[in-house]
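[stage:ingest] chain + small molecule (zinc ion)
[stage:ingest] validated
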Amino acid sequence: MKGFTQIQGNIFVEPCKDCGERPVVEQQKGLFIVRCPKHDSHYQTKPGFVDINDWNLKNKVHTSLGATDTKPSKEAS
Ligand SMILES: [Zn+2]
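[stage:predict] done
[stage:export] C-alpha coordinates:
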Protein backbone atom coordinates (compact mmCIF):
# COMPACT_ATOMS: atom_id res chain seq x y z
CA MET A 1 0.00 0.00 0.00
CA LYS A 2 1.15 3.49 -0.73
CA GLY A 3 1.19 6.17 1.91
CA PHE A 4 -1.57 8.44 0.77
CA THR A 5 -3.05 11.12 2.96
CA GLN A 6 -6.69 11.98 2.64
CA ILE A 7 -7.48 15.61 2.00
CA GLN A 8 -9.69 17.01 4.73
CA GLY A 9 -13.36 16.86 3.89
CA ASN A 10 -13.89 20.56 4.46
CA ILE A 11 -11.43 21.46 1.69
CA PHE A 12 -12.95 21.79 -1.75
CA VAL A 13 -11.26 19.64 -4.36
CA GLU A 14 -12.37 18.68 -7.83
CA PRO A 15 -12.74 14.94 -8.40
CA CYS A 16 -10.30 13.31 -10.79
CA LYS A 17 -11.55 14.24 -14.24
CA ASP A 18 -10.72 10.78 -15.56
CA CYS A 19 -12.25 8.52 -12.93
CA GLY A 20 -14.08 10.74 -10.46
CA GLU A 21 -12.03 9.80 -7.42
CA ARG A 22 -11.36 12.33 -4.70
CA PRO A 23 -7.66 13.13 -4.87
CA VAL A 24 -5.19 12.33 -2.11
CA VAL A 25 -1.83 13.69 -1.09
CA GLU A 26 1.25 11.55 -1.58
CA GLN A 27 4.45 12.42 0.23
CA GLN A 28 7.76 11.71 -1.45
CA LYS A 29 10.98 12.69 0.26
CA GLY A 30 9.36 15.60 2.01
CA LEU A 31 7.58 16.82 -1.11
CA PHE A 32 3.85 16.62 -1.59
CA ILE A 33 1.95 15.57 -4.67
CA VAL A 34 -1.80 15.93 -5.12
CA ARG A 35 -2.86 12.94 -7.17
CA CYS A 36 -5.53 10.45 -8.11
CA PRO A 37 -5.51 7.58 -5.59
CA LYS A 38 -6.30 4.92 -8.18
CA HIS A 39 -4.15 5.54 -11.22
CA ASP A 40 -0.57 6.67 -11.58
CA SER A 41 -1.33 7.86 -15.10
CA HIS A 42 -3.97 10.35 -14.04
CA TYR A 43 -3.06 13.91 -13.29
CA GLN A 44 -0.57 14.63 -10.53
CA THR A 45 0.66 17.99 -9.39
CA LYS A 46 4.36 18.70 -9.40
CA PRO A 47 6.16 17.62 -6.23
CA GLY A 48 6.36 20.47 -3.80
CA PHE A 49 3.74 21.97 -1.57
CA VAL A 50 0.18 20.72 -1.55
CA ASP A 51 -1.07 22.49 -4.65
CA ILE A 52 -4.79 21.91 -4.58
CA ASN A 53 -5.38 24.96 -6.75
CA ASP A 54 -3.34 23.39 -9.53
CA TRP A 55 -5.18 20.10 -9.16
CA ASN A 56 -8.52 21.87 -9.32
CA LEU A 57 -7.54 23.80 -12.43
CA LYS A 58 -6.36 20.71 -14.26
CA ASN A 59 -9.37 18.61 -13.28
CA LYS A 60 -12.11 21.01 -14.18
CA VAL A 61 -14.10 19.42 -16.94
CA HIS A 62 -14.50 22.76 -18.65
CA THR A 63 -10.95 24.03 -18.82
CA SER A 64 -10.41 27.64 -19.67
CA LEU A 65 -8.80 28.11 -23.00
CA GLY A 66 -5.15 28.89 -22.76
CA ALA A 67 -5.50 31.03 -19.71
CA THR A 68 -2.23 31.00 -17.88
CA ASP A 69 -0.56 33.27 -15.43
CA THR A 70 2.45 33.69 -17.66
CA LYS A 71 1.19 36.05 -20.31
CA PRO A 72 3.86 38.53 -21.23
CA SER A 73 3.30 41.92 -19.82
CA LYS A 74 5.31 44.85 -20.91
CA GLU A 75 4.18 47.35 -18.42
CA ALA A 76 7.58 48.17 -17.07
CA SER A 77 7.81 51.88 -16.69
ZN1 LIG B 1 -8.23 9.19 -11.61
